[in-house]
Amino acid sequence: MKVLVPVKRVIDYNVKARVKADQTGVDLANVKMSMNPFCEIAVEEAVRLKEKGAATEVVAISVGPTQAQETLRTALAMGADRAILVQTDQDLEPLAVAKVLKAIVAEESPELVVMGKQAIDGDNNATGQMLAALLDWPQATFASAVEVSGGKAKVTREVDGGLQTIEVDLPAIVTADLRLNEPRYASLPNIMKAKKKPLDVKELGSLGVDTAPHLKVVKVTEPPKRAGGVKVETAADLVMKLKNEAGVL
Amino acid sequence: MAVLVIADHDNQSLKDSTHKTVTAAQKLSGDVDVLVGGTNAAAIAAEAAKIAGVRKVLAAESAELGQGLAEAFEALVVPLAANYDAVLTPATSQGKNISPRIAAKLDVAQISDVVEVVDANTFVRPIYAGNALETVQSSDAKKVITVRPTVFKAAGEGGSAQVETIAAPAAPAKARFVGQEIVKSARPELSGAKIVVSGGRAMGSAEEFQRVIEPLADKLGAAVGASRAAVDAGYAPNDYQVGQTGKVVAPELYVAVGISGAIQHLAGMKDSKVIVAINKDPDAPIFQVADYGLVADYKAAVPELMDELSKVGK
């Protein structure tokens, strides 16, 4: 079974995003970028499926600028077999990314696509579901456990209030939640080996996919700042202030 | 222009997030219909019909809808969408599961987690864990939107909409429900609670979390939340998690005990009206958003706080 893992290069999750003064977006110049944390979990799960013998090949794919090759090399160092970069400087919406991924799925015919539940920059939480819809494949989102056997995947999902388990026929889309696994660190020898693994670069234009934006960003602003608070000395002070000043008790 | 709101419910009763999504929908159009898909749909539809300002309620009954399968909702909603200019869903785990699938089938963008409706085409949504707000203008004729329920007021009661029963189309059999494990709790629901008490990694163990956080929550009539660190360490179940990847809450009072305040956590609670932080580290980032900060070890501070609350009749 071939597993396709889409990964995204995003601002590092420890960096606090700063809005540009001209309100056109978030300042990404000279900011540390990394693989989206949910994508790391997806790569880890795909590699574990291979280690268990459930998968034969793990293909990482990214849609983005030339620098996304670094993100793909990270996936290769974690254990992916090869990588594909669909190169574009356009910042694509989830629907466009889903269409690009659909074109790649048509070429690669994976039986399983494992991807993160959301990217920490756009916070859309949509691409996996959209890809499932475009392919007419079943979806198992927010996965915290995945078991693959006999052409089916049994997936435990994190839902409001607890956990739900569903079974989907392959081919299917699984999106990873935080608790699916703990991603491994790439070791130095594996980072070196990853440099020799195949990485195909395709131009976005060569896929013939309509990636025209549906949404126009009018402006990006800072959220309203909270007024500075006060430190209180004792629990008694705290309760008095909550009762008399804030009126929330 | 008409808007369809997909109701959030647990097959027993309607959830408050539906009322809040109706409020957002009313900013788009006066003609708001509510769709209830699930088991026990007729009873839940009757509840939805009472929401003020709702034009019509559609009720579709099937086991697959009751199990929340996205494929079943796609089959139900996509044909219905022909009659509407917008489809709104609360941004709950269920809404996030089904809505993008519907958007892709309609070949339109989804506008996720909307916090403000500027006009019929323009919406505001948080990005980068709530560190920026993006105003987007949609060029799609049909809008598919998920709504962050915590920022909208719940629509009131007093309506008397007509309920229409519609057939649930057969869902593709590629996905099947196996089972579920829902955490039982007598406390208020986290995302709708007026007061939330959250614990962090400082608790050190599940026993300590229960010993410290839960009695304080019970005293305040609060829901219990947790930071990701506390959930990952197994101190609290994962549906307690407040943050970018967990639940977004906006209670009147949020009490953070032993939580440092990572940006991912702040994304889930910084719209609370009053934030109280109890942390022994005076430099913890949580103090930058807290209205009232108490620099103290929770081991001493929480029992004192409990005593003081008793004195004021809590």
UniProtKB/TrEMBL annotation, chain A:
Its cofactor is AMP. The keyword Electron transport applies. The keyword Transport applies. Residues 23-211 form the Electron transfer flavoprotein alpha/beta-subunit N-terminal domain. Keywords: Electron transport, Transport. Gene3D superfamilies: HUPs (3.40.50.620). InterPro entries: ET-Flavoprotein_bsu_CS, ETF_a/b_N, ETF_b, ETF_beta_N, Rossmann-like_a/b/a_fold. GO terms for molecular function: electron transfer activity. GO terms for biological process: carboxylic acid catabolic process. Pfam families: ETF. It comes from the Bacteria. Heterodimer of an alpha and a beta subunit. Belongs to the ETF beta-subunit/FixA family. The electron transfer flavoprotein serves as a specific electron acceptor for other dehydrogenases. It transfers the electrons to the main respiratory chain via ETF-ubiquinone oxidoreductase (ETF dehydrogenase). This is Electron transfer flavoprotein subunit beta. It comes from Phenylobacterium zucineum (strain HLK1). The gene is etfB.
TrEMBL record, chain B:
PROSITE patterns: ETF_ALPHA. CDD domains: ETF_alpha (cd01715). It holds the Pfam family ETF. One of its GO terms (molecular function) is flavin adenine dinucleotide binding. InterPro entries: DHS-like_NAD/FAD-binding_dom (IPR029035), ETF_a/b_N (IPR014730), ETF_a/FixB (IPR001308), ETF_alpha_N (IPR033947), ETF_asu_C (IPR014731), ETF_asu_C_CS (IPR018206), Rossmann-like_a/b/a_fold (IPR014729). It comes from the Bacteria. FAD binds at residues 201, 227-228, 241-245, 258-265, 279. SUPFAM superfamilies: Adenine nucleotide alpha hydrolases-like, DHS-like NAD/FAD-binding domain. Residues 3-181 form the Electron transfer flavoprotein alpha/beta-subunit N-terminal domain. GO terms for biological process: fatty acid beta-oxidation using acyl-CoA dehydrogenase. The electron transfer flavoprotein serves as a specific electron acceptor for other dehydrogenases. It transfers the electrons to the main respiratory chain via ETF-ubiquinone oxidoreductase (ETF dehydrogenase). Belongs to the ETF alpha-subunit/FixB family. This is Electron transfer flavoprotein subunit alpha. It comes from Phenylobacterium zucineum (strain HLK1).
